[in-house]
Structure formats: structure tokens, C-alpha cells
Amino acid sequence: MGFFPFTIIPLIFYVLAALFLYDHSNYVVEPGQVALHPFWSEAVLSFTLVSGQSWALSYGDLLITISVVLLLFSLLKTASTSKTTILGNMIMVLVLCLYIILFLTVDFAGTSTFFLLTVIALVDTLATVSISMVASHSTMDAVPED
Fold first, then answer.
1. Which long-range contacts (CB under 8 A, 24 or more apart) does 53-59 make?
2. Over the stretch 43-102, which tens digit does the pLDDT of each residue have?
3. Cα(39)–Cα(47) distance, rounded to whole angstroms?
4. Could you tell me if 64 and 113 are in contact, meaning their C-beta atoms sit under 8 angstroms apart?
5. Cα atoms in the 13 Å half-sphere on the side-chain side of 95
């Protein structure tokens, strides 16, 4: 579990939803329009706040929220200095590359939701590598030299 990148979970959800939950035939983006698939803007829940303001949570917002929570878990497991940390960092970089490649080349990934998921994967990768480097240096400093 130490080398499992949590940021792959939202990627799997997004791709599965893109392949199976919405109709691609009705999706056309004209030049100058924002690419947002109707599925990601549909409301999961909505209610009126105490202030009287109506608030709705869309599927895209929910997926980003889940991704931020998974980012927290990923950062919490990062401080370990086990042997699987290097493998985990390499897999995390591969997942980030997959996000970037999908964003740039696949039509259903060209949305703001997917872009924000890519940014979360970037932050996770950079933070994990940085924290791992600091943790490994502090471990090396704790070992007395002979």
C-alpha cells in the first residue's frame, strides 16, 4: 500500500464516467465555448443555505472534493522512509504523466474538472517527492557517523 498513488482513484472514476455514463454523440464544443461535459455539471445535491442562497454540488465538484481528501491521505503516508517510497514516487510521476497526456490528447478529458484533477496530481507528486527527500535527509542525519 505504500507505493499506491491515491491520485489514480479520481482518474479511474473520471475515465469510467466518461466511457459509460454520458452520451458522446450529443457533445459538441463550438470554437470559443468552454468544454464542460453535461454530466460533470449535473447536480448531485442542492439545497438552500441559511442565508437564502441556493447551493448545488455537481459531480465535477464532488470528484474534486474527493481528490483533495485523497491528497491529504497521500501526504500523510509520504513521511515514511520505507523502501517502497522510491517505487511509489516513480508510479506517482507516471500517473501524473498519464493525467497530462489524457488532458492534452483525449476529448473527454479536456475539461476544467480534469484540469483541476491534473493540478491536484501535480501538487501530490511535487509534495511527495519533496517530503520524501526531506525525510530521507533527516534519517541520514539521525544515523551517527563512525
1. 59/17
2. 899 999 999 999 999 989 999 999 999 999 888 877 665 666 778 788 889 999 999 999
3. 19
4. yes
5. 26
